[in-house]
Fold this protein.
Amino acid sequence: MKRIGLYPGTFDPLTNGHIDIIQRAVKLVDQLVIGVAVNQDKGPLFSLDERVEMVKRESQNLKGPGLAAISVQPFDSLLMHFAEEVGAQIIIRGLRAVSDFEFEFQMVGMNARLNDHIETVFLMAEARHQSIASKLVKEIARLGGDITSFTTPYVAGKLRGKFESAAKQP
């Protein structure tokens, strides 16, 4: 049986922490679906199409022999419904700190009540990526700081472009 994992997130923007989790996840499953959530409640900086495009572009180099096939799909539904739709047996979540665990622990319990056949696996980001949060990367970029150690050059360019065009708006 093919092991399908789902790594969901808003990826607004994709960070090196996210990429670290993807690199670990492709070793655990046969197929990895990266689910890009609409999540308008978070007020994303990038459109859904932009986020899907960034994740597709930056994850294409993470494939190889013995690693999972990767697909990137947007979703605007309950996570467990999307997991069922893509046939996932595993939901992959990244943890940065103990504070993440409290929220994630609640989510696991609720998700298990919705479908107890889908397991959640937590992966710790590598130590040098544990402090990276998309919200903070956006803030640093907005204020003109150097974000090159937090994300890829491509995503950093996209972020700078967003804030430069916003600054030119009257």
Summary: The mean pLDDT is 89.
